């Protein structure tokens, strides 16, 4: 019987695979246009469960993405990035999901599609809420709500309103939460969306329970339960039973609380995700513990632990051992209480380690996605350039055949012009290559810093450091795609970098950034990542070795005679002492960042035929002792307009 069942499952899976790949092959034969992009996106949604079950990337969306880039279809790109982001969010890869959904916002705005903008802003808000970034989540959902109200899109109004209510609920702003849930409930009732009605009724119950209005909360839980029973949702029914159990527990009506928790346990057997069953056993155990029925409580807690161990529910194991520790403590068995508490902490540490590893992995994924997107754009650009070159050559041949004499004279000037252009293009490509080196150089240095920080600090601080680092990475990846960026964007990334380095060095230095009064930092342009290597050098070779007083790093940016003058001054130990320390430690490493940046500045001078240079001045005090270093970088002034 088992073999027959296994064979039937294998046959069904084989049929699914044939159906998926047959559909993909059929779509591939169609012309490359926006209709094909839409068809790939729809097919990807249709077969998403197949790819999730087999832990594969969705091949339909993987083909839709480069095609949308090739067609320069902003709408298609917004749609496919929304689907990719939601898929990653369902797998708890929230950083990657947020990155995809932010790309969806960018392309939805480029397409000027308000409905797509609403969807993208709401999706990004959900990603942020899952990461507990409540202010960012609120801003995204509020923006989505404002856009949805302009076009009277009820679906996105409901999503945004409910999400804002949940944010207020998390922040314990219960009155605001109730106001938003009430509005969402009325809209869902008008739309006859029973699932939305059930969710908002339950949320209102949570808000009133937060205000300690338990009877009112129980009324809303019962109303939500009725709707969930109507639509036949075991998960929704289990949530309501658990909520009712918790509310009656607060009222100290333990018998009624136990009745509802046992109902939740029965319903949870019909839910595929067994974590809900483990949660029900744990809730019953906590309730029995509150009644001092310790032996019976521990049996239920142990059932939760055994189920969680089988399915590897680490968060549930952490909570179950924590509850078991509290129960042993209440009964006076302090030795067993300590043992259970230790196990709870072990699972907590394991969860934190997994989160850190997952965050690093997701950052690498984001970097790879951005790199591939840039490769696609570069290939399309090269293709256009190739077409233009071929057309130019054809025109040149016809002109040569018709006007031989003029071609001979013109050929001389053309060859001369081509050589100059080729030389300039070579310099620009070298500059682009050097600029692209800054990304991996800076990322690898920063990842190394994070590694050391994680080992030398606790996981919570490391997580905060990693969040700031991810924000900096996004700025660096955005900025270094361009030859020039506005001064305010460059200084924003520089401040974030200095904050991270100050945090890692335990605040051993302070910094000041001053911009000339005659400079509009939104109009002045500067090559990206041009100052960071010199700032890094000042910190790690000058300021970290200073022990007698606090380090000070000053960055001044002035405009003089159409030149941008950037001065980086530190009160560190000076170059001579830094070299002595380096020699004592036996380090022979030369800074890649410094070499690349010097090469970039040299190429900027060659391309623009304007002054571009770096000078380093050793500072000394009145007694002639080293008092730091001053680096002056002079660049040609560039403006947006």
Automatic annotation (TrEMBL):
Which windows of the sequence hold TPR repeats?
158-191, 198-231, 238-271
Q: Which residues form the Signal transduction histidine kinase internal region domain?
A: 430-506
Q: Which domain of life is it from?
A: Bacteria
Checking SMART domains in the record gives: TPR
Cellular compartments per GO CC:
membrane
Give TM segment ranges: 394-415
Q: Could you tell me which Pfam families the record lists for this protein?
A: His_kinase (PF06580), TPR_12 (PF13424)
The UniProt keyword set, sorted, is: Membrane, TPR repeat, Transmembrane, Transmembrane helix
The Swiss-Prot or TrEMBL record annotates one GO molecular function as: phosphorelay sensor kinase activity
Looking up PANTHER family in the UniProt record yields: SENSOR HISTIDINE KINASE YPDA (PTHR34220)
User: What is the protein name for this chain?
Assistant: Tetratricopeptide repeat-containing protein
Q: To which species is this protein native?
A: Chitinophaga eiseniae
